[in-house]
Amino acid sequence: MVTPLFRIVKDKLHFSFHAGQARAWKSERRFPSIIAGSQSGKTEYLSPWLWREIKKRGAGDYIGVAPTFPLMTRKLLPAFKRLFVTTLRLGSLVGGTVNRFTMSADGEVRLWGARQDEPTNVFFGHASDPDSLESATVKAAILDECGMAKFRRGSWDAIQRRLAIHTGRALMGTTPYNLGWLKQEVYDRWKAGDKDYDVIQFESIMNPSFPRDEFERARRLLPAWKFNMFYRGLFERPAGMIYDCFDFAIHKVPKFAVDPTWKRYLGIDFGGVNTAAVFLAEDPKKKQWYVYDEYHAGGRTAAEHAAKFRAMVPGTPIYCVGGSKSEGQWRDEFKAGGLPVREPDQASVEVGIDRLYGAIKSNKLFVMDHCSGLLDEIGSYSRPVDDAGNPQEGIENKADFHLLDSARYIVGWLNRGFMKLNFGESIGLPAGRRNILDDLPEGVFG
Predict the structure, then answer these.
(1) Nearest to 367 by CA among 249, 268, 232
(2) CATH number at 252-436
């Protein structure tokens, strides 16, 4: 019989952590994270950690965040309710469109020994909409499955802003899913020695209730990358990663001051809620492009966006490309706002992906390290994969990658000489050349 994670013994709360959870319990750093295998006890551990944090930090507001509303109601909320409402009887949980736990007067006495001068609430939100997190000032946060693609980098930024006043802590619990912001902004910072971060990793079988036979079966049947990520909690390059040629040790470069004489380029992805842009500068000697800035905002007119763009570059960019071929109205609006925008030279998303891929693989495109939104999207942009780990047609969560779409428009236009052959090799044609047959000797085809 497996011992429950928590229980009341003689009116005292007792926890029964396994070794991985116990290591996380001892961490005193501001942003600890459990990056571990599936079903290893991550979500169940979040609520005990938050209970201790509330007891230590006192009355006030706290927050729990999941990638999506369904995941929040299916995993995070039930685990929280079992501890805070059913076991400890600290207050009530109101569900629906606004999910909020409110501590009762009896709960305050039970937790701190006396009534408090201010109320205590735990608000629950989902990270697929970063704007939904821009409200409360909170003392601590728990983040469930924050490695998923739906848990956007903007949500992590919003959570840190909510914690800033109280220098609050945030506990993250997730399986690694991609090489996005969690890998770059949490794991890599921890590996580099940043004392704000702590990473605790363990396998699924660290959970005593996880069957060893199931673990070994997964090892036999799954691709190594998938087994390592989903059962061992290790970061790997997924099979479906589209820009697998992007080497973060090479193509991510430190920020530097761009020479004012370099040509500037701008790629735009239009949208009423999500208008995004990436800014490129060209090194004329090396013939390389550097993404030196990014933009992502909504709730503005085309003229207001255009004014923002002009303020971010020394004059109007030499070339500005944006939108799909069908978005002529947007281009008209930007032109009326003072920023002419070129139409892409072709309509195929896959051709644009190939051209951007070619620019990266041939070491023509680099991204400055402060452009964290674009770097997150590069690390999480992927094909769907089948149960065997084989990439399938299409793009996972295609509508979420506005900055990459911006990069695809402008780099696709700049790299028009790139061609990808059917057998997977890539070549770059001379400027102005579109046809590889032009390079063949005369008379090859009779």
Answers:
(1) 249
(2) 3.30.420.280
Tokens of 104: 């009762």
* Alpha carbons 76 and 47: distance in angstroms, whole number: 9
Q: Pick the range with the lowest mean pLDDT from 41-45, 128-132, 147-151, 337-341.
A: 128-132
Contact 239, 382 (CB under 8 A): no
Task: Report residue 146 as tokens.
Answer: 């924050």
Confirm if 18 and 29 have CB atoms less than 8 A apart: no
pLDDT score, position 441: 42
Domain 6-232 has CATH 3.40.50.300: yes
User: How far is CA 151 from each of CA 71, 129, 143, 236, 248, rounded to the nearest angstrom?
Assistant: 11, 9, 9, 18, 21
Burial class (CB in 10 A: 0-12, 13-18, 19+), 112: middle
CA atoms within 13 A on the CB side of 304: 8
Same fold, 6-232 and 252-436: no
289-316 pLDDT per residue, tens: 999 999 999 889 999 999 999 888 877 7
The whole-angstrom separation of Cα 378 and Cα 91 is 43
Q: What is the pLDDT of residue 218?
A: 93
pLDDT digit string (tens) for 196-205?
999 999 999 9
Exposure string of 390-402, with b = 16+ CB inside 10 Å and e = fewer, is: ebeeebbeeebbb
Number of Cα atoms under 13 Å in the Cβ half of residue 99: 21
Q: What angle separates helix 105-112 from helix 42-57, to the nearest 10 degrees?
A: 90
* Residue spans per domain, the chain: 6-232, 252-436
